[in-house]
Amino acid sequence: VFLQGRSSNTRRNLRRFEKGFFAAFEGRFRIRTYNAPAEADTIATSLEQIARSTYHRGLGAGFVDTPLQRALLAQGLRTGCYRAYVLELDGRPIAFWDGRTCRGTFHTETTGYLPEFQEQRPGWFLLMHIVHELCCEPGVDRIDFGIGDAQYKQMLCDDTEDEQPLVLFAPSLRGRALRAAQSASWSSPTL
């Protein structure tokens, strides 16, 4: 049902991506879904192993294995909302997506793949697996890809929402001074 809502060009491209990945790696890959508290170290290690080679890291974004990230990961695993999907080739992690489920929506957090496999599109291959899995999961009826306008978002999303940050200031003299300074340098709504 999900793919039926995409354009014929998008459906054709997704089939081509899947066939290309299968042709290159059939019988050599495995997709793992990690969602248990005991898997926290494995998740952090696998994601970091991939993330350190991604363009996201070069931009100062994406997954970074820090104490804060591990604490957030552990909290999400304890509450049952976090999961990470890792695509392995010959036992080696080559692509990942992670995120959290909340009130029927799976919110993606970070993603990445090893650049040496760009031609085979492992990120797309893994994403289509995730979409299929989430479509079959009771209680999940939406995927939120977060901010940005990446190609996959343009191809797969039914709708988008424009957002702006909202900054609140205390109703004090210091709060008013901060608001004035902020308003002079930023065009975001303030209260």
What does this structure look like?
There is one protein chain. With 191 residues, the protein is an alpha+beta fold. The chain is 42% helix and 19% strand. The chain is built from 7 helices and 5 strands. Strands 1-2-3-4-5 form a 5-stranded mixed beta sheet, with helices on both faces. Strand 4, helix 5 (122-135) and strand 5 form a beta-alpha-beta unit. The longest helix has 18 residues, at 8-25. The chain is globular and about 65 Å long. The mean pLDDT is 86.
Helix/strand/pairing category: alpha+beta
Spans of at least 5 consecutive residues whose pLDDT stays below 50 are none
Give the count of helical stretches: 7
**What is the subunit organization of this protein?**
single chain
Overall outline: globular
Q: Report the portion of residues in β strands.
A: 15-25%
Physical arrangement of strands within the biggest beta sheet: 1-2-3-4-5
Let me know the number of strands.
5
| Topology order in helix (H) and strand (E) letters | HEHHHEEEHEHH
Task: Work out the radius of gyration.
Answer: 19 Å
Mean pLDDT: 86
Described by strand count, sense and barrel closure, the largest sheet is: 5 strands, mixed
Relative helix content: 40-55%
Span of the ends, CA to CA = 43 Å
